[in-house]
Amino acid sequence: MMEIITRLVFGLYLLVILGGAGLAVFSANLVRAFVGMVATLLGAAGLYLLMQSPFLAFMQLLIYVGAICVLIFFALMLTNAYQGGDESAPAPLSKFARSLLAGLAPLVLLLPTVLLHPVAAKEKPEATPLAELGKVLLEEYTVPFELISIILLIAMAGGVFLAWERRNR
Amino acid sequence: MNEFSLWTVFTLVVGLVAILAFIAGNAMALVWMERKVAGFIQRRPGPNQLGPAGVLQSVADAVKLLFKQILKPSNADSIIFFLAPILSFFPVALLFMPLPFSPFFTAYSPNLGLLLILAFSGINVLAVLLAGWSSNNKYSLYGAARGVSQSVAYEIPLLLAVLAIAFQHGTLNLSEIVEQQGGWPWQWNVFTQPLAFLIYFISIFGETNRSPFDLPEAESELTAGFHTEYSGMGFALFFLAEYANMVLVCCVATALFLGGWKGPFLDGFWWFLAKAYGLLFIMMWVRWTYPRARFDMLLNLNWKWLLPLGALNLLATAFVMKLF
User: Fold this and answer.
1) Predicted pLDDT at B4
2) Closest Cα of chain A to B85: distance in Å?
3) CA B27/CA B117 separation, integer angstroms
């Protein structure tokens, strides 16, 4: 019984993710593409829930749907992308090819690592307590954890720097 | 997470139905209360024709909204235009699930309850954005842009204040946070964390778009802001979601800062409701007392005062927790 429900729910999330991704890539309307992206992120949050990690699912919602998507949309609104604008024309094939290449790049980068160090599969997912997660992040993986924050800081500084240049001109 | 069983499903379904009834009932009661409070503050009677003291006014309004024709501007994006009000209302029922009204009246008590509320309340901002954009109208677009810059800004001090409480209790489970507080006012978190409560209470005005921070729907400047083009049930869903969010932030404040369902005597959900309604009354009182803030004032207050104060408060909490 439980098994069937899990499979059904997994299929549902998969549909949401793939449908959203398709909408995001192929929609001529920027805002509809954006809605597709939000659907994909929501589906991914559902997959986290299915894997017994509600913390990740809620963080996905809080950070990606609640903050990053909203900021992306804010930027979209400032561009005044009305229907029937330039971006609603069909994109040239070379653009599709290049974006396909960019989309496959992470796969090429991550696949060797995943294949060389496979994580042992479990019959049933187990929930990790939040305190344990925090301990692992701040004791075992302190250096990578801090490195990630440095990357984010550099990205933020870079963003501010770029915007500053443009305003002075 | 709990083991899957018929009993869990049963409690979840009963909880959901009860919560939806609670939301609808509360919205009606609050609309009436808001008008009465406004009337008293402005020295006029308020609604007084339908039923004793006008209590049936909200019922009449609800019927009117149900029967009103739903219009769509001719250039609006029809899918997104109708998606937005639904998106604004659907997380609301979920948001009430982890609230501990009393030890018995808790629909679902996950360990990450507080996080669940914070995560799903972000979807409302998205709905405001989509509504503002898809209406294809400058007023709506400006309202949405304001709503977003305000919600994104005020979410940060709100999170910092909530985090200080979570830090103090070492849990994100709302039931446990209430459990660790006592019945008397000096045993509540508002006594140990007055600054966090103040920051939280100011932030919720920004988060729920309530006056003096109701710039996304400022009538005198933007007609009705992001919901200018919505009529009938489209408008009603936004309206319901707004009042439900007001009740929600007050309920969360009650659980976090005011000892939840605990009182000096006879613990129970009546204490929870009384405290939450007290906070709601203060929110209305503020709305009809203060004029609307200017937008730069609103953002300055957030970035220059609430955010640094919230960060300092969190640091001080961490320091004290480590020390004792």
Assistant:
1) 60
2) 14
3) 19
- What is the domain extent for residue A142? 128-169
**Does residue A94 sit within a domain?**
no
Q: State how far the Cα of A20 lies from the Cα of A89, in Å rounded to an integer.
A: 21
Task: Spell out the domain ranges in chain B.
Answer: 6-323
Which chain A residues are closer than 8 Å to B122 by Cβ?
A: 61-62, 65-67, 70
Number of domains chain A is built from: 2
Whose CA is closest to B237, among B136, B19, B90? B90
How far, in Å, CA of B299 to CA of B308, rounded? 13
CB atoms within 10 A of CB A49: 17
Q: Do residue A35 and residue B80 have CB atoms under 8 angstroms apart? A: yes
Domain boundary among A50, A82, A114: A82
The answer to the question of residue A51 being in a domain is yes
Dihedral sign (CA A46, A51, A52, A57):
negative
Q: What does each C-alpha distance from A56 to A53, A59, A147, B14, B177 come to in angstroms? A: 6, 5, 20, 27, 22
- Which member of A31, A55, A74 has the closest CB to residue B77? A31
Q: How far apart are CA B261 and CA B267, in angstroms?
A: 6
Cα–Cα distance list, B175 to B56, B121, B183 (Å) = 35, 19, 14
> Is residue A64 a part of any domain in this protein?
yes
Please give the pLDDT value at position A83: 59
Cβ pair A66:B125 closer than 8 A: yes
Q: What angle do CA A80, A86, A92 make, to 5 degrees?
A: 140
C-beta atoms of B119 and A127 within 8 A: no
Q: Rounded CA gap, B21 and B146, in Å?
A: 32
Supply the ipTM of this predicted assembly: 0.77
CA B232 from chain center: how many Å? 22
Point out the residue among A29, A66, A73 whose CB comes nearest to the CB of B119.
A66
Question: How much of chain B exceeds pLDDT 90, in percent?
Answer: 9
pLDDT digits (tens, 9 = 90+) for A100-132: 898 889 888 888 888 888 777 777 777 778 888
